[in-house]
Amino acid sequence: MVRTRDWKYVHDPMGDRDELYDLVNDPWELRNAVDADHAEMLADLWLRLADWSVGRVGGRPVPLPDAEKYEVA
After folding, report:
1. 11: exposed, middle or buried (C-beta count within 10 Å: 0-12, 13-18, 19+)?
2. What is the pLDDT of residue 52?
């Protein structure tokens, strides 16, 4: 999981369904916005989580979904 002041992204390593929450407009995290039109924010948070995981989990990254899903170049 990674969050900013305004957004929270939860990666599901089992591949079921990731979660993205707009904490400004949905502070109780009731609406998963992962399928909404937030590709840029999703890509940013995905990269932050990937960067963090490389340095924290025994030097190996936490398994993340394919970059194509998030249009990360």
Report:
1. buried
2. 80
Q: What is the DSSP-derived secondary structure letter of residue 67?
A: G
Rounded Cα distance, 63 and 37, in Å: 24
Q: Among 3.30.1120, 1.20.5, 3.30.1490, 2.70.50, what is the CATH number of 2-70?
A: 3.30.1120
Low-confidence ranges of the chain (pLDDT < 70): 55-73
pLDDT at 66: 64
- Give the predicted TM-score (pTM) of the model: 0.72
- Assigned token pair, 23: 């904490």
User: What are the structural domain ranges in the chain?
Assistant: 2-70
